[in-house]
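Weekly puzzle thread! Below is a chain. First person to post its structure in token form gets bragging rights.
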Amino acid sequence: MQFNFSPEEEKLCNEVHAFLQKEITQQVIDETYVLGAAYGGPEARKIIKKIGEKGWVCPTWTSEYGGIQSSEMVRFRILDDMSYMDLPCAFVGAHMAGPTILRFGSEELKREFLPPIARGEVEYALGYTEPQAGSDMVSLEIRAEDRGDHFILNGQKMFNTHTHIADYHWLATRTNTDAPKHRGISLMIVDLKTPGITIRPMITMGSWQTNEVFYDDVKVPKNNLVGELNRGFYYIMVALDFERMLPVGRYRHLFDRLVEYVKESYLDGKPLADNQIIRQKLANIAIELEAAHLLYYQLAYMLDKGEVPSYQASMQKLFATEAGQHLTNVGMQIMGFYGQLQQDSKLSQLEGRMEWYYRSAIVETIFAGTSEIQRNIIALRGLGLPAR
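Winning reply:
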């Protein structure tokens, strides 16, 4: 694995960093926390469009689709930088749907849907989970009935987080009820403004909104089908691998702020930084975050070699999200009751971020596949252990 960026890559990354520092506002930071780091709110759209104009939203793509044909290492570093600055870092269109369309979509689909994603003009929402189909993806029941040049969709989705701020639904639907379950699923792109779609909010323990979505006789053009009919399950498995590649910049930023808090805070007249137990706990967290950081860039290295990480993405997602939980647990222990105060309290420390992250970190071990699912993937695909 190459640990250094080329001079050209370093120059580009520094240019992006300077641009972000200039453009970032408190409004977009506040919106990012409200939306759980999701992209699609009005403040984020302003800055993401500016980034897209420079080809930095999807820098690995060719100019034909709106990129600058850079490396995955550069893309990962840009995302990590945005994450550290408390900007949105969960892009369904650019980082999950887009790469899947590139690999499996028709040329017509690529030309229609990829450039607007790269320009930062549109965002997508994942449409996988249903009341009876969470980790068990093959049990989904939403139906797409073939009507010649279009499908008619009926059914329900749950925990579709971006749908209230997104433009399109990246939808998994059943198109064949007679085939084995995993061979009767198709993947399609649905305009969320289409008549018959109802979106209802569900608030997570992290305070940000996810949604349940209802489809009632929703018409979707055949041209919006991704890849082949009834092959959607296999495409979703690839898209999930992309979804599990999580930048750890936000947690490194929180850790850096916690270290400064320890240096500046006193207990019984002594700085917290002199406490050996606190020093040991912070050292352990620093090691975990560095390991998560390296696992993250290993994924970029593999992508640059033409590989799509599978169990490696699960390793990184599992390790990073659980390291986030360890960080917030330690933060709560160090800050005591101050760590439990929210931003609106006059006594809150670190703008109440520790309390927010403490709740949000739990949610992150659930979405994109629970920690238990990630361990199963590592066991089956990585270690070759039997399914039973």
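Puzzle host: Confirmed. Bonus trivia for everyone else. The CA atoms of residues 59 and 67 lie 5 Å apart.
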